[in-house]
Amino acid sequence: MKFLFITIITSIIFGKCFSQKINYQTEEISIEKFTYSECDEDCFLESKIINQEYTENSYILTIGAYLNCSGDFVSYLVPNSDTLKIYVIVRPNVNDIVEYVDCDCYYQLDYLVEGLENAPKVITINNETLERNFEKRGPVILD
């Protein structure tokens, strides 16, 4: 009985912490639109900021990054002072299992973010700091 109680409490605590981390959004800052391209298998591209535009609390951002080839992504933001931390993960399946494949591809990621007070000075994706390189790989498409 004691073991059952400890297991239940531990599950509640860790489950709540994990879900808060994955679903992190604030009421002030939200991803209004998130899209990504098809896999580009060109191995000589670098992760970078392709384009960014900031106007009155709307922030459009295009990033090029290497991610898992499975390609079914979700993303969340963690604003921190002058840094915008972006996390992109493979979407868990119906059993909350994340299935990765054994390769990475280059993707163009397009964001429309609402609620940022200022454009960030530093942007990271999955803890990698991105350089600014505004050579476009294609149009920003936010339907």
Quick tags:
143 residues; mainly beta; four-stranded mixed beta sheet; 1 helix; 9 strands; globular; disordered N terminus; disordered C terminus
Low-pLDDT residue spans: 1-27, 136-143
Sheet/helix structural class:
mainly beta
| N to C succession of SSEs | HEEEEEEEEE
**Separation of termini?**
54 Å
Mean pLDDT: 76
Number of domains: 1
Largest sheet: 5 strands, mixed
Can you tell me the overall shape?
Answer: globular
Summarize the structure.
With 143 residues, the chain is mainly beta. It is built from one helix and nine strands; from the N terminus they run H-E-E-E-E-E-E-E-E-E.
How would you characterize the overall build of this protein?
There is one protein chain. This protein is mainly β. Helix content is about 15%, strand content about 45%. It has one domain (about 25-130). The radius of gyration is 17 Å and the shape is globular.
Question: What is the strand and helix layout of this fold?
Answer:
Elements: H1 2-22, E1 30-36, E2 48-55, E3 58-68, E4 73-80, E5 83-90, E6 104-114, E7 122-125, E8 128-129, E9 131-132
Parallel strand pairs: 2-9, 5-7
Antiparallel strand pairs: 1-6, 2-3, 3-6, 4-5, 7-8
